[in-house]
Input
Amino acid sequence: MRVSKQQVDIKMQIPGAVIRQRKDFGDATGLGKISGEYFTLSAGVDTTPLFQGLEGNLCQSPHWGYVLKGRLTTTDAAGEHETVSADDLFYWPPGHNVKVDEDAEIIMFSPQHEHSHVIDHMIEMTKG
Output
């Protein structure tokens, strides 16, 4: 799920403040501790080879985030693609790969245990 800023409903607007809210933006029930993450990624980065060996060869951690700059495309287990760009909020459910289309910076919030497992796996895959 991706949502541009303009698609997030304005709930309150007063001089000096605009409050926008998108309800039902993923479900964090039972996920335990969350980690805050800041990724800087270059165009061309593709997680597909780094996720080999994980369940379904995909990242199995959900992520909630915001694109500061750039453009990224996710592919899920069914082969569906979704592109997020600067100023988009996003939710990536478990079961995805990511390709960076333009140099990007993103902020994500992920279940600490699940995503640490994926990051550790990626580190091992880069050791060759």
In short: The radius of gyration is 15 Å.
